[in-house]
Amino acid sequence: MTDSEVRKLTIMPFAGALRGKVTPPGSKSITNRALLVAALAKGTSRLSGALKSDDTLYMAQALRAMGVTVEEPDATSFVVTGDGRLRAPTAPLFLGNAGTATRFLTAAAALVEGQVVVDGDEHMRKRPIAPLVTALRTLGVAVEAPSGCPPVTIAGQGGFAGGRVEVDGGLSSQYVSALLMAGACARGPVEVALTGKEIGARGYVDLTLATMAAFGAKVSQPDAASWRIEPTGYRAADYLIEPDASAATYLWAAEVLTGGAIDLGVPAAAFTQPDAKAHALIAAFPNLPAEIDGSQMQDAVPTLAVLAAFNRTPVRFTGIANLRVKECDRVSALSQGLSRIRPGLGVEEGDDLLVASDPGLAGQTLPAEIDTFADHRIAMSFALAGLKIGGITILDPACVAKTYPDYWRALASLGVRFEGEAP
Ligand SMILES: O=C(O)C1=C[C@@H](OP(=O)(O)O)[C@@H](O)[C@H](O)C1
Ligand SMILES: C=C(OP(=O)(O)O)C(=O)O
Protein backbone atom coordinates (compact mmCIF):
# COMPACT_ATOMS: atom_id res chain seq x y z
CA MET A 1 0.00 0.00 0.00
CA THR A 2 1.36 3.47 -0.82
CA ASP A 3 1.11 6.41 1.58
CA SER A 4 -1.67 8.01 -0.39
CA GLU A 5 -3.75 4.83 -0.17
CA VAL A 6 -3.62 4.80 3.63
CA ARG A 7 -6.87 6.58 4.32
CA LYS A 8 -7.44 5.70 7.95
CA LEU A 9 -5.66 4.31 10.94
CA THR A 10 -7.31 2.99 14.09
CA ILE A 11 -5.23 3.22 17.25
CA MET A 12 -5.37 0.20 19.54
CA PRO A 13 -5.70 1.27 23.19
CA PHE A 14 -2.56 0.65 25.17
CA ALA A 15 -3.31 -1.06 28.45
CA GLY A 16 0.00 -0.54 30.18
CA ALA A 17 2.53 2.22 30.59
CA LEU A 18 4.39 3.35 27.46
CA ARG A 19 8.10 2.93 28.02
CA GLY A 20 11.10 3.30 25.76
CA LYS A 21 13.25 5.81 23.95
CA VAL A 22 12.07 8.05 21.13
CA THR A 23 14.13 10.96 19.89
CA PRO A 24 11.90 13.66 18.37
CA PRO A 25 12.95 14.91 14.92
CA GLY A 26 14.75 18.22 14.50
CA SER A 27 12.87 21.47 15.00
CA LYS A 28 10.86 22.54 11.97
CA SER A 29 11.05 26.20 12.97
CA ILE A 30 14.80 26.22 13.45
CA THR A 31 15.50 24.08 10.36
CA ASN A 32 13.61 26.44 8.07
CA ARG A 33 15.24 29.52 9.60
CA ALA A 34 18.71 27.99 9.34
CA LEU A 35 18.14 26.85 5.75
CA LEU A 36 17.16 30.37 4.71
CA VAL A 37 19.92 32.31 6.45
CA ALA A 38 22.52 29.73 5.36
CA ALA A 39 21.28 30.20 1.78
CA LEU A 40 21.74 33.96 2.13
CA ALA A 41 25.30 33.54 3.45
CA LYS A 42 28.47 33.35 1.35
CA GLY A 43 30.08 29.94 1.75
CA THR A 44 29.14 26.52 3.04
CA SER A 45 27.02 25.90 6.16
CA ARG A 46 26.46 22.50 7.71
CA LEU A 47 23.12 22.09 9.47
CA SER A 48 22.89 18.99 11.63
CA GLY A 49 20.04 17.57 13.68
CA ALA A 50 17.75 19.00 10.99
CA LEU A 51 14.17 17.97 10.27
CA LYS A 52 13.49 16.26 6.94
CA SER A 53 9.77 16.55 6.36
CA ASP A 54 7.39 18.15 3.87
CA ASP A 55 7.86 21.63 5.34
CA THR A 56 11.65 21.64 5.28
CA LEU A 57 11.95 19.82 1.97
CA TYR A 58 9.74 22.46 0.35
CA MET A 59 12.06 25.12 1.75
CA ALA A 60 15.18 23.29 0.54
CA GLN A 61 13.68 22.76 -2.91
CA ALA A 62 12.72 26.44 -3.22
CA LEU A 63 16.25 27.51 -2.31
CA ARG A 64 17.66 25.15 -4.94
CA ALA A 65 15.29 26.72 -7.44
CA MET A 66 16.89 30.06 -6.56
CA GLY A 67 20.40 28.85 -7.30
CA VAL A 68 21.53 27.71 -3.86
CA THR A 69 23.26 24.33 -3.50
CA VAL A 70 21.49 22.31 -0.83
CA GLU A 71 22.92 18.84 -0.28
CA GLU A 72 21.59 16.12 2.00
CA PRO A 73 24.50 13.91 3.07
CA ASP A 74 22.35 12.01 5.58
CA ALA A 75 18.88 11.82 7.11
CA THR A 76 19.41 14.75 9.50
CA SER A 77 21.84 17.09 7.72
CA PHE A 78 21.72 19.78 5.08
CA VAL A 79 24.87 21.26 3.59
CA VAL A 80 24.05 24.65 2.13
CA THR A 81 26.37 26.56 -0.18
CA GLY A 82 25.49 30.03 -1.36
CA ASP A 83 27.18 33.12 -2.73
CA GLY A 84 25.10 35.60 -0.75
CA ARG A 85 22.46 35.96 -3.47
CA LEU A 86 19.16 34.33 -4.40
CA ARG A 87 18.37 34.13 -8.10
CA ALA A 88 14.98 34.41 -9.79
CA PRO A 89 13.42 30.95 -10.12
CA THR A 90 12.09 29.91 -13.51
CA ALA A 91 8.77 28.66 -12.06
CA PRO A 92 6.55 29.55 -9.09
CA LEU A 93 7.89 28.33 -5.75
CA PHE A 94 5.47 25.67 -4.50
CA LEU A 95 5.59 25.41 -0.73
CA GLY A 96 2.71 23.07 0.10
CA ASN A 97 1.18 24.19 3.40
CA ALA A 98 4.45 25.28 5.01
CA GLY A 99 3.69 28.60 6.71
CA THR A 100 7.31 29.22 7.66
CA ALA A 101 8.67 28.60 4.15
CA THR A 102 5.90 30.68 2.56
CA ARG A 103 6.22 33.70 4.82
CA PHE A 104 10.02 33.65 5.10
CA LEU A 105 10.54 33.31 1.35
CA THR A 106 8.01 36.04 0.54
CA ALA A 107 10.24 38.56 2.33
CA ALA A 108 13.50 37.02 1.08
CA ALA A 109 12.21 37.24 -2.51
CA ALA A 110 12.65 41.01 -2.26
CA LEU A 111 16.40 40.32 -2.42
CA VAL A 112 16.09 38.60 -5.81
CA GLU A 113 16.64 40.39 -9.11
CA GLY A 114 13.51 39.41 -11.04
CA GLN A 115 10.09 37.96 -10.42
CA VAL A 116 9.29 35.39 -7.76
CA VAL A 117 5.88 33.77 -7.31
CA VAL A 118 5.35 32.19 -3.88
CA ASP A 119 2.54 29.68 -3.87
CA GLY A 120 1.23 26.75 -1.89
CA ASP A 121 -1.51 24.15 -1.78
CA GLU A 122 -5.23 24.80 -1.36
CA HIS A 123 -4.84 25.16 2.42
CA MET A 124 -1.96 27.63 2.13
CA ARG A 125 -4.03 29.62 -0.34
CA LYS A 126 -6.44 30.34 2.52
CA ARG A 127 -3.79 31.44 5.03
CA PRO A 128 -3.45 35.25 5.30
CA ILE A 129 -0.31 37.01 4.17
CA ALA A 130 -1.63 40.56 3.65
CA PRO A 131 0.09 42.09 6.73
CA LEU A 132 3.47 40.95 5.40
CA VAL A 133 2.66 42.21 1.90
CA THR A 134 1.71 45.63 3.33
CA ALA A 135 4.91 45.79 5.35
CA LEU A 136 7.08 44.88 2.35
CA ARG A 137 5.42 47.62 0.30
CA THR A 138 6.39 50.15 2.99
CA LEU A 139 9.97 49.09 2.34
CA GLY A 140 9.52 49.85 -1.37
CA VAL A 141 9.13 46.24 -2.48
CA ALA A 142 6.74 45.66 -5.40
CA VAL A 143 4.54 42.81 -4.20
CA GLU A 144 1.02 41.63 -4.98
CA ALA A 145 -1.27 39.10 -3.31
CA PRO A 146 -4.71 39.91 -4.71
CA SER A 147 -6.60 37.50 -2.43
CA GLY A 148 -4.65 38.49 0.70
CA CYS A 149 -3.29 34.92 0.70
CA PRO A 150 -0.81 33.13 -1.58
CA PRO A 151 -0.04 33.18 -4.44
CA VAL A 152 2.19 36.21 -3.87
CA THR A 153 4.10 37.83 -6.73
CA ILE A 154 7.22 39.74 -5.85
CA ALA A 155 8.98 41.88 -8.46
CA GLY A 156 12.38 41.74 -6.82
CA GLN A 157 14.85 44.54 -7.50
CA GLY A 158 17.89 42.75 -6.16
CA GLY A 159 17.37 44.13 -2.67
CA PHE A 160 15.79 47.02 -0.83
CA ALA A 161 17.11 50.16 0.81
CA GLY A 162 16.12 49.54 4.42
CA GLY A 163 14.25 51.90 6.74
CA ARG A 164 11.46 51.57 9.25
CA VAL A 165 8.56 49.21 8.78
CA GLU A 166 5.55 48.51 10.95
CA VAL A 167 3.94 45.10 10.87
CA ASP A 168 0.88 43.61 12.46
CA GLY A 169 2.01 40.32 13.98
CA GLY A 170 -1.38 39.56 15.55
CA LEU A 171 -2.32 36.85 13.05
CA SER A 172 1.15 35.39 12.64
CA SER A 173 4.55 36.02 14.19
CA GLN A 174 6.02 34.59 10.98
CA TYR A 175 5.53 37.98 9.26
CA VAL A 176 7.86 39.54 11.83
CA SER A 177 10.43 36.74 11.56
CA ALA A 178 10.34 37.01 7.76
CA LEU A 179 11.12 40.74 7.84
CA LEU A 180 13.85 40.31 10.44
CA MET A 181 15.69 37.63 8.44
CA ALA A 182 15.46 39.46 5.09
CA GLY A 183 16.33 42.72 6.86
CA ALA A 184 19.96 41.71 7.47
CA CYS A 185 20.49 41.65 3.68
CA ALA A 186 19.02 45.10 2.96
CA ARG A 187 21.31 47.91 1.78
CA GLY A 188 20.83 49.88 5.01
CA PRO A 189 19.61 49.24 8.57
CA VAL A 190 16.01 48.06 8.93
CA GLU A 191 13.80 48.81 11.90
CA VAL A 192 10.89 46.42 12.33
CA ALA A 193 8.18 47.62 14.73
CA LEU A 194 4.98 45.93 15.81
CA THR A 195 1.80 47.94 15.18
CA GLY A 196 0.31 46.53 18.36
CA LYS A 197 2.07 45.24 21.46
CA GLU A 198 0.51 41.84 20.83
CA ILE A 199 2.21 39.15 18.86
CA GLY A 200 0.97 35.61 18.45
CA ALA A 201 4.00 33.84 19.83
CA ARG A 202 6.92 36.03 20.77
CA GLY A 203 9.10 33.01 21.44
CA TYR A 204 9.29 32.39 17.69
CA VAL A 205 10.78 35.85 17.18
CA ASP A 206 13.40 35.00 19.80
CA LEU A 207 14.13 31.81 17.86
CA THR A 208 14.60 33.91 14.71
CA LEU A 209 16.97 36.28 16.48
CA ALA A 210 19.01 33.36 17.85
CA THR A 211 19.40 31.78 14.40
CA MET A 212 20.28 35.12 12.81
CA ALA A 213 22.92 35.76 15.48
CA ALA A 214 24.47 32.33 14.87
CA PHE A 215 24.97 33.33 11.23
CA GLY A 216 26.53 36.70 12.09
CA ALA A 217 23.56 39.09 12.04
CA LYS A 218 23.46 42.06 14.43
CA VAL A 219 20.09 42.96 15.87
CA SER A 220 19.32 45.35 18.73
CA GLN A 221 16.00 45.92 20.42
CA PRO A 222 15.22 49.61 21.05
CA ASP A 223 12.08 48.58 22.96
CA ALA A 224 9.84 45.56 23.55
CA ALA A 225 8.01 46.08 20.27
CA SER A 226 10.79 46.90 17.80
CA TRP A 227 14.07 45.55 16.44
CA ARG A 228 16.90 47.23 14.51
CA ILE A 229 18.78 45.00 12.08
CA GLU A 230 22.19 46.06 10.78
CA PRO A 231 22.96 45.42 7.08
CA THR A 232 25.58 42.77 7.78
CA GLY A 233 24.32 39.96 5.55
CA TYR A 234 25.04 36.46 6.87
CA ARG A 235 28.17 34.46 7.52
CA ALA A 236 28.21 30.72 6.76
CA ALA A 237 28.21 28.60 9.92
CA ASP A 238 27.93 25.05 11.19
CA TYR A 239 24.75 24.80 13.19
CA LEU A 240 23.24 22.14 15.41
CA ILE A 241 19.44 22.15 15.40
CA GLU A 242 17.66 21.07 18.58
CA PRO A 243 14.80 18.54 18.52
CA ASP A 244 11.29 19.76 17.82
CA ALA A 245 9.45 20.86 20.97
CA SER A 246 6.01 20.59 19.35
CA ALA A 247 6.76 16.98 18.39
CA ALA A 248 7.94 16.37 21.94
CA THR A 249 4.54 17.40 23.34
CA TYR A 250 2.91 14.23 21.93
CA LEU A 251 5.50 12.06 23.62
CA TRP A 252 5.23 13.94 26.93
CA ALA A 253 1.44 13.58 26.75
CA ALA A 254 1.62 9.87 25.83
CA GLU A 255 3.82 9.41 28.86
CA VAL A 256 1.45 11.01 31.40
CA LEU A 257 -1.69 9.50 29.82
CA THR A 258 -0.32 5.98 30.22
CA GLY A 259 1.72 6.57 33.38
CA GLY A 260 4.81 5.58 31.42
CA ALA A 261 8.35 6.82 30.96
CA ILE A 262 9.55 7.85 27.50
CA ASP A 263 13.15 8.94 27.16
CA LEU A 264 13.36 11.73 24.59
CA GLY A 265 17.11 11.98 24.95
CA VAL A 266 16.78 15.66 25.83
CA PRO A 267 15.39 17.27 28.99
CA ALA A 268 12.42 19.63 28.61
CA ALA A 269 14.48 22.48 30.05
CA ALA A 270 16.97 22.22 27.17
CA PHE A 271 14.47 23.33 24.50
CA THR A 272 14.49 26.98 23.41
CA GLN A 273 11.24 26.71 21.41
CA PRO A 274 7.95 28.18 22.70
CA ASP A 275 6.09 24.86 22.88
CA ALA A 276 8.47 23.57 25.54
CA LYS A 277 6.36 25.66 27.94
CA ALA A 278 3.69 23.00 27.56
CA HIS A 279 5.87 20.51 29.43
CA ALA A 280 5.06 21.99 32.85
CA LEU A 281 1.33 21.85 32.08
CA ILE A 282 1.50 18.28 30.79
CA ALA A 283 3.40 17.30 33.93
CA ALA A 284 0.46 18.63 36.01
CA PHE A 285 -1.96 16.16 34.35
CA PRO A 286 -4.59 15.07 35.53
CA ASN A 287 -4.75 18.39 37.33
CA LEU A 288 -4.51 20.78 34.40
CA PRO A 289 -5.60 24.33 35.31
CA ALA A 290 -9.14 25.55 34.61
CA GLU A 291 -7.81 27.98 32.02
CA ILE A 292 -4.85 27.61 29.67
CA ASP A 293 -3.68 30.63 27.66
CA GLY A 294 -2.41 29.04 24.46
CA SER A 295 -1.04 32.22 22.92
CA GLN A 296 2.60 31.52 23.70
CA MET A 297 2.51 27.75 22.96
CA GLN A 298 0.10 27.61 20.06
CA ASP A 299 1.19 24.43 18.35
CA ALA A 300 0.91 22.56 21.66
CA VAL A 301 -2.78 23.43 22.04
CA PRO A 302 -4.09 20.37 20.12
CA THR A 303 -1.97 18.11 22.37
CA LEU A 304 -3.17 19.88 25.52
CA ALA A 305 -6.80 19.90 24.37
CA VAL A 306 -6.88 16.14 23.79
CA LEU A 307 -5.12 15.58 27.11
CA ALA A 308 -7.67 17.86 28.78
CA ALA A 309 -10.45 15.45 27.79
CA PHE A 310 -9.00 13.01 30.38
CA ASN A 311 -8.33 15.69 33.04
CA ARG A 312 -10.10 15.74 36.41
CA THR A 313 -11.74 19.09 35.69
CA PRO A 314 -12.75 21.01 32.54
CA VAL A 315 -10.25 23.27 30.79
CA ARG A 316 -10.90 26.47 28.86
CA PHE A 317 -8.33 27.36 26.19
CA THR A 318 -7.97 31.10 25.60
CA GLY A 319 -5.67 33.22 23.42
CA ILE A 320 -6.09 30.81 20.51
CA ALA A 321 -7.93 32.94 17.92
CA ASN A 322 -5.10 32.57 15.42
CA LEU A 323 -5.40 28.77 15.57
CA ARG A 324 -8.21 29.41 13.10
CA VAL A 325 -5.67 30.33 10.40
CA LYS A 326 -3.19 27.47 10.85
CA GLU A 327 -3.13 24.36 8.64
CA CYS A 328 -6.87 24.24 9.27
CA ASP A 329 -9.23 26.00 11.68
CA ARG A 330 -7.87 24.16 14.70
CA VAL A 331 -10.42 25.53 17.17
CA SER A 332 -13.15 24.04 15.03
CA ALA A 333 -11.26 20.82 14.20
CA LEU A 334 -10.58 20.18 17.89
CA SER A 335 -14.17 20.80 19.00
CA GLN A 336 -15.46 18.63 16.16
CA GLY A 337 -13.05 15.78 16.86
CA LEU A 338 -13.68 15.83 20.61
CA SER A 339 -17.43 15.94 20.10
CA ARG A 340 -17.22 12.96 17.75
CA ILE A 341 -15.82 11.01 20.69
CA ARG A 342 -18.60 12.27 22.92
CA PRO A 343 -21.08 15.04 22.08
CA GLY A 344 -20.20 18.22 23.96
CA LEU A 345 -16.67 17.08 24.89
CA GLY A 346 -15.26 20.04 23.00
CA VAL A 347 -17.22 23.27 22.58
CA GLU A 348 -16.30 26.54 20.87
CA GLU A 349 -17.17 29.68 22.80
CA GLY A 350 -16.24 32.61 20.60
CA ASP A 351 -12.60 31.88 19.87
CA ASP A 352 -12.15 29.87 23.09
CA LEU A 353 -12.26 26.10 23.25
CA LEU A 354 -13.91 24.53 26.26
CA VAL A 355 -12.96 20.92 26.93
CA ALA A 356 -15.40 19.11 29.23
CA SER A 357 -13.10 16.64 30.89
CA ASP A 358 -13.92 13.10 31.99
CA PRO A 359 -11.25 10.75 33.38
CA GLY A 360 -13.84 7.98 32.93
CA LEU A 361 -13.33 8.13 29.15
CA ALA A 362 -10.25 5.97 29.59
CA GLY A 363 -11.03 2.31 29.03
CA GLN A 364 -14.24 2.93 27.10
CA THR A 365 -14.88 2.04 23.49
CA LEU A 366 -16.26 5.09 21.70
CA PRO A 367 -15.79 4.58 17.96
CA ALA A 368 -15.04 7.90 16.30
CA GLU A 369 -13.56 8.82 12.93
CA ILE A 370 -11.47 11.93 13.40
CA ASP A 371 -11.35 14.28 10.44
CA THR A 372 -7.84 15.72 10.48
CA PHE A 373 -8.50 18.33 7.77
CA ALA A 374 -5.02 17.42 6.43
CA ASP A 375 -3.58 18.89 9.64
CA HIS A 376 -0.66 16.96 11.13
CA ARG A 377 -1.30 18.26 14.65
CA ILE A 378 -4.93 17.14 14.64
CA ALA A 379 -3.80 13.66 13.56
CA MET A 380 -0.99 13.41 16.11
CA SER A 381 -3.00 14.77 19.05
CA PHE A 382 -6.11 12.62 18.50
CA ALA A 383 -3.90 9.54 18.27
CA LEU A 384 -3.27 10.19 21.98
CA ALA A 385 -6.98 9.73 22.69
CA GLY A 386 -6.72 6.38 20.91
CA LEU A 387 -4.20 5.19 23.48
CA LYS A 388 -6.97 5.26 26.12
CA ILE A 389 -10.25 4.94 24.18
CA GLY A 390 -11.14 2.06 21.86
CA GLY A 391 -12.22 2.83 18.30
CA ILE A 392 -10.39 6.12 17.59
CA THR A 393 -9.70 6.25 13.86
CA ILE A 394 -7.51 8.92 12.33
CA LEU A 395 -8.44 9.91 8.78
CA ASP A 396 -5.58 10.80 6.42
CA PRO A 397 -2.86 9.68 8.86
CA ALA A 398 -0.15 10.41 6.26
CA CYS A 399 -0.62 14.14 6.92
CA VAL A 400 1.89 13.82 9.80
CA ALA A 401 4.57 14.03 7.07
CA LYS A 402 4.33 17.81 7.31
CA THR A 403 6.56 17.87 10.40
CA TYR A 404 6.93 14.35 11.84
CA PRO A 405 7.05 11.68 9.11
CA ASP A 406 8.17 9.03 11.64
CA TYR A 407 5.35 9.66 14.10
CA TRP A 408 3.50 6.38 13.60
CA ARG A 409 6.78 4.44 13.59
CA ALA A 410 7.76 6.19 16.83
CA LEU A 411 4.51 5.13 18.52
CA ALA A 412 4.89 1.60 17.13
CA SER A 413 8.43 1.42 18.54
CA LEU A 414 6.92 2.00 21.98
CA GLY A 415 4.53 -0.90 21.48
CA VAL A 416 1.45 0.92 20.15
CA ARG A 417 -0.50 -1.15 17.61
CA PHE A 418 -2.74 -0.03 14.79
CA GLU A 419 -5.55 -1.46 12.72
CA GLY A 420 -4.72 -0.42 9.18
CA GLU A 421 -1.18 -0.08 7.92
CA ALA A 422 0.62 2.95 9.30
CA PRO A 423 2.01 5.20 6.56
O1 LIG B 1 7.88 30.95 13.29
C1 LIG B 1 7.61 29.74 13.37
O2 LIG B 1 8.47 28.86 13.18
C2 LIG B 1 6.23 29.34 13.72
C3 LIG B 1 5.37 30.25 14.28
C4 LIG B 1 4.00 29.89 14.67
O3 LIG B 1 3.10 30.37 13.69
P1 LIG B 1 2.42 31.84 13.73
O4 LIG B 1 3.47 32.82 13.97
O5 LIG B 1 1.80 31.92 12.37
O6 LIG B 1 1.42 31.83 14.83
C5 LIG B 1 3.80 28.38 14.75
O7 LIG B 1 2.44 28.09 14.84
C6 LIG B 1 4.39 27.70 13.54
O8 LIG B 1 4.20 26.29 13.58
C7 LIG B 1 5.87 27.92 13.48
C1 LIG C 1 1.18 26.14 12.34
C2 LIG C 1 2.08 25.26 11.94
O1 LIG C 1 2.87 25.35 10.84
P1 LIG C 1 3.18 26.49 9.78
O2 LIG C 1 2.53 27.77 10.21
O3 LIG C 1 4.67 26.60 9.78
O4 LIG C 1 2.64 25.98 8.49
C3 LIG C 1 2.34 24.03 12.73
O5 LIG C 1 3.33 23.33 12.45
O6 LIG C 1 1.56 23.71 13.65
UniProtKB/TrEMBL annotation:
The active site is at D299. It is an enzyme of class 2 (transferase). Its EC number is 2.5.1.19. The keyword ATP-binding does not apply. Phosphoenolpyruvate binds at K28, G99, R127, Q174, R330, R377, K402. 3-phosphoshikimate binds at K28, S29, R33, S172, S173, Q174, D299, N322, K326. It catalyses: 3-phosphoshikimate + phosphoenolpyruvate = 5-O-(1-carboxyvinyl)-3-phosphoshikimate + phosphate. Keywords: Amino-acid biosynthesis, Aromatic amino acid biosynthesis, Cytoplasm, Transferase. Its main location: cytoplasm. Residues 17-411 form the Enolpyruvate transferase domain. It is found in: Cytoplasm. It comes from the Bacteria. Pathway: Metabolic intermediate biosynthesis; chorismate biosynthesis; chorismate from D-erythrose 4-phosphate and phosphoenolpyruvate: step 6/7. InterPro entries: Enolpyruvate_Tfrase_dom, Enolpyruvate_Tfrase_sf, EPSP_synthase, EPSP_synthase_CS, RNA3'P_cycl/enolpyr_Trfase_a/b. Monomer. Belongs to the EPSP synthase family. PANTHER family: AROM/DEHYDROQUINATE SYNTHASE, PENTAFUNCTIONAL AROM POLYPEPTIDE. Catalyzes the transfer of the enolpyruvyl moiety of phosphoenolpyruvate (PEP) to the 5-hydroxyl of shikimate-3-phosphate (S3P) to produce enolpyruvyl shikimate-3-phosphate and inorganic phosphate. This is 3-phosphoshikimate 1-carboxyvinyltransferase. The lineage of its organism: Bacteria, Pseudomonadati, Pseudomonadota, Alphaproteobacteria, Hyphomicrobiales. The gene is aroA.
